[in-house]
Amino acid sequence: HTSVASLALALSLSAPPAAPAKPDKDLEEKALTTLERGAKAGDFDVRALAIEGLGFGPKKRVLTPVKDALADPQWGVRSAAIRSLRVLKDTSWEKEVQRSVCDAAVDPDSQLLPLIEDLGPQKAVPIVIKGLEAKDCGRPERYVLAYTRKGGEWLVTAFKLGLKSGSADIKALFDKELPALPLVAAMPIYKEGFTKYSPDLQKTILKRIAEAKTEEVPDIAFVKPLLKSSKDPEVQFQLAYLLALRGDNSGKAQLI
């Protein structure tokens, strides 16, 4: 039975050396053999460690066992395989991430999103959105909420892409969360789409901005075009009220 300790040693032996000296061929072969054996172990922690180690081996030799691990019932092993495929520069890891997005047993916050976080929002979010757009994707709303919790550039990137999704169902999920997004974090999203929102959503956002501190939302120039373009008297009134709060009387006719 292969122990975790021996696999850890094998992993370190199979990793690229820090020094330019060539690794001992016998040691390298022994490490790879140990890892290949570990990839078939009954203990899923051992399998995961072994698959992770194989990612540093010769691509021709290790690609098949690494790809085979994508069918493992344990997420820890599958995620190790995805990491190894990235190390091996095999592009199939993206499709596996997209498939995993639709696996209701894989948690967005603690399992899937951390797996590709190092890519940054501009590269990672499109992969996730594409996964959500697959037919029969399991509980896609989990990712809308996960990105809302994550905040910052992750929230902004996810919503900007999600609101333009070619899938009406996915777009609707992002639309649904728009009114209650954290106000300050959501301002880049609101500024981009505000004039196209429904009057109800416009009123909700205007009310939230009016209730916020000026320093939280200092720039409200993006709402001003609605003074002329909106045909909803309630929107016009709330907009004029907000502008007046900020010392701008351009909407005073709507307040009379």
What's the average pLDDT?
A: 90
Report low-confidence residues grouped into runs of 5 or more.
Answer: none
The portion of residues assigned to helices is 55-70%
* SSE succession: HHHHHHHHHHHHHHHH
Number of strands: 0
What form results from the Cα inertia axes? elongated
Distance between the termini: 84 Å
Structural class: mainly alpha
Biggest pleated-sheet summary = none
In terms of DSSP E residues, the strand content is under 5%
- By DSSP (H or I, 4+ residues per run), the number of helices equals 16
- What Rg is obtained from the alpha carbons, in whole angstroms? 26 Å
Which labels suit this protein?
single chain, 256 residues, mainly alpha, elongated
